[in-house]
Specification:
This protein is an alpha/beta fold. The chain has 2 domains: 185 residues, Rossmann fold; 103 residues, Rossmann fold, CATH 3.40.50.1100. It contains 10 helices and 10 strands. α3 links the parallel β3 and β4. α2 crosses α3 and α6 packs across α7. The protein is globular, with a radius of gyration of 23 Å.
Length: 351
């Protein structure tokens, strides 16, 4: 015998039914495969470099700012934008004969460039000799070795990056290049990397439909900020370019060289590829503030990246606040946070 429902019971049934329909629609939206198209089949992992997504930040950006987008470079094969420069440098050297087939490649690196070079060299059949330091994450060192690179370590002063460490690594790489007759990519002076970053700038322009008011990027070799901003300004000369450097070693701003903990940037001296005439502003960010923002971006935006990304986001917020609502600021999530799990960025969050 079927029992009748009173008003409250009927309302409950309707509510459950509506929730079930909504849940079904959500599940269908996630599992529906009708919109999926097959991606291209790559002949090499190197074909997977570039064409990374542009992600809008929605939670760490204050309400009085313009929109902020990050170029999500963790989507590259090694999880870093440096894949672009490594491929550009090696390809150019192969094409003009500086690097013969099977020739040895030599480089000094904080790690990300070395990992990217290790990937490119493994794919192209080049032995790789890397000079790096204990100042940089163990994840990067293991990654390089796993891809076949031979490492030489230069001891740092308390695990920090400074000018003395950079120069010591450069000197060691020069010695190895002379001993092995290898091709030294010499990233701080290598203009071939600019081509890889110009492509990145064109991607940003296309992804924003040409709506870029400012571009913000931290300075390591200066290759990325010079190459990307050059491409953007080829489309629109009014694009504002903002450089970011460590507060503790603000040499581009005219300050003193010092030690800092933002891996991959802040060489401690004015790098050869830097052209201050092409930059509108320079923002300094402390290591501690950069780390704090990197953690916030991970927890609030689910964008897991390194310390330089935190510095970029802080400078982008400052720029977007100056430009105001309605503006569009683009910066870079330079690499994946998985490269820094053993470092103070994620091991000692109180620092």
């Amino acid at each position: 015998m079927v029992q009748s429902l009173d008003y409250a019971d009927a309302a409950l049934v309707r509510s459950v039914a509506i929730d079930a329909i909504a849940t079904t629609k959500e599940v269908t939206a996630v599992t529906d495969r009708s919109h999926i198209t097959a991606g291209p089949v790559a002949s090499s992992v190197l074909d997977c470099i570039g064409n990374t997504p542009l992600v809008e930040l929605r939670h760490v950006v204050p309400p009085d700012c313009g929109r902020i987008f990050v170029k999500f470079e963790a989507a590259n094969p090694t999880g870093s934008m440096k894949d672009r420069m490594a491929l550009a440098m090696i390809t150019a050297a192969e094409l003009d004969g500086r690097l013969p087939a099977g020739g040895t490649v030599v480089e000094y690196t904080g790690g990300s460039t070395g990992v990217s070079l290790a990937q490119v060299c493994a794919a192209k059949g080049h032995p790789l000799r890397i000079v790096t330091s204990d100042a940089y994450s163990v994840e990067k060192r293991r990654h390089m070795e796993s891809l076949g690179a031979e490492l030489t370590l230069v001891e740092s002063n308390g695990g920090a990056t400074d000018a003395a460490l950079t120069h010591a690594m450069i000197d060691a790489a020069a010695e190895i290049a002379a001993e092995t007759n290898g091709y030294w990519t010499d990233q701080l002076r290598n203009v071939d990397q600019l081509n890889g970053y110009r492509v990145m700038g064109d991607e940003i322009w296309a992804q924003t439909d040409g709506e870029v008011d400012a571009f913000v990027q931290s300075v390591g070799t200066a290759g990325s900020i010079m190459g990307i901003s050059g491409a953007l300004r080829a489309h629109a000369s009014a694009v504002r370019v903002v450089a970011v450097e460590p507060e503790e070693s603000a040499v581009l701003s005219g300050g003193s060289s010092g030690s800092h903990y933002i891996e991959g940037v802040g060489a401690g001296f004015v790098v050869p590829l830097w052209d201050g005439a092409l930059v509108n502003d320079i923002v300094t960010v402390s290591s501690s503030d950069a780390m704090a923002m990197s953690r916030r971006v991970a927890k609030e935006e689910a964008v897991f990246a390194g310390t330089s990304t935190g510095a970029n986001v802080l400078a982008a917020i400052e720029t977007a606040r100056q430009l105001g609502p309605g503006s569009t600021v683009v910066t870079v999530a330079c690499d994946s946070g998985t490269k820094y799990l053993s470092t103070r960025l994620f091991q000692n969050e109180e620092q």
